Amino acid sequence: RRKRNEVICLENNNWIFSDEYKKMIENMNQIKKNLSPIFDTLCRNNLQLNSILKTNISPEKLNAITGFKNQMVDFTRFSKQLSGVFPSFQLSEEVKEFIREAKESESLSEEEFEKKYGSEFEVCKTLGEHGWVVSGHSNPRYIKNWYKELIEGEPDKIVCFFEEDDDRVIKNIMDTLESKYNDPVNRNYYSRGIKAFQDDDYMTCAMYLVGLLEARVNALVQFPLNTKYREKFSDKGFADVKQEQFADSSSFFTKRYYFLDVYPSLIAFLNRLFVDGEYAFEKGIEPPYINRNWLLHGKCCREIERFECIQLLNALETIENVLGNEKEIESQ
Questions:
Q1: Are 216 and 313 within 8 A, CB to CB?
Q2: I want to staple 304 with a disulfide (CB 3.0 to 4.6 A). Which of 115, 194, 202, 291 is the partner?
Q3: Cα separation of 295 and 286, whole Å?
């Protein structure tokens, strides 16, 4: 978020990138380079003059020379400090290019936008296929690291992100969800799920959270009646919601967050959770992750682990934050 504010600030201060400003910086930098050696020499000569004439000069003039020497030292120090500051302005061209690209992207359609940044889209989709929804707790650096840890076979490092600092992120998610569930039915399922989570009863926790998650997605997206799971939890099922949200989003950052990061990972996660795919009952092979039908139809034999409930909580919070409750309020 801070990164986004910095770039917005730069957008609102286009004078920073004007040719006049750039020329001014170049001139100041050149002056600094030309003056620094001169003042270094003056300071050294002044020190020598002070030592030579110290016994033959009046106190008043000695004080004046000493003051002048101190000013030269201060100016030289300031000149050296400028050497560390001015190189940072060399990045202005990169920042300007980024702003230029962001502005151009804001005129693209949803399909064009997702296609242009297809690599980020696919990375986040892959995260969702492995149970991790990109949320407000993520940022581009975390997303990149999560993907790297997945392909290197170290998914436990993603879990550590949520559990570090005494479960800081998990507690934050719980606090957010606690504040959203005032309805007695939602609160009942959520509170029972959290109690089971805190009691290390992860299968019971998963059953309550999956039931709540399904109810919340149905309420917020409002799919057409009799829509099958395979159609619901797909790009087609979310097409209307995405189209409306894309039309209301003018910022490059908002579009990037929703349509390159959140929706690809969320839809992939929901598809894995609710659609049997290759793990149909008839085949008799249980998926190695939580699947709604296997879990709620009494077919689940494997041990549900803590990190899987963390995945459900993370997805549930993202659903509440991204989909909001406007459609639910309208229908009521």
A1: no
A2: 202
A3: 10
